[in-house]
Amino acid sequence: MAEKEKKEIKQPNAVARFYRETVGELRKVNWPTWPDAKNLTGIVILVLVVMAVYLSVVDAIGAWFVNLILGV
């Protein structure tokens, strides 16, 4: 009979367990301070702009090269 009682213990559903575990993990996160977040955001934006310029130049050179080969 004790075995039946152990099996009848209700397990939390997947959504509730996911939520509980997610909240638990987020409490362990070492969040950056506002100045750190601003600096990191600035770095990301700078890298984004540099890569956009670089890819634009590479695309323009590639288009020029293809036009040169095809004679268009």
Give the ordered list of helices and strands.
Answer: HHH
> What would the average pLDDT be, to the nearest integer?
89
Radius of gyration: 28 Å
Structural class designation: mainly alpha
- First-to-last CA distance: 86 Å
Shape: elongated
What's the helical proportion of residues?
over 70%
Per DSSP, the total helix count is: 3
Largest sheet: none
Q: Got a strand count?
A: 0
Structural commentary:
It is a single chain. This protein is an all-alpha fold and 72 residues long. It has one domain (2-70). The chain has three helices and no strands. The radius of gyration is 28 Å and the shape is elongated. The chain starts with a helix and ends with a helix.
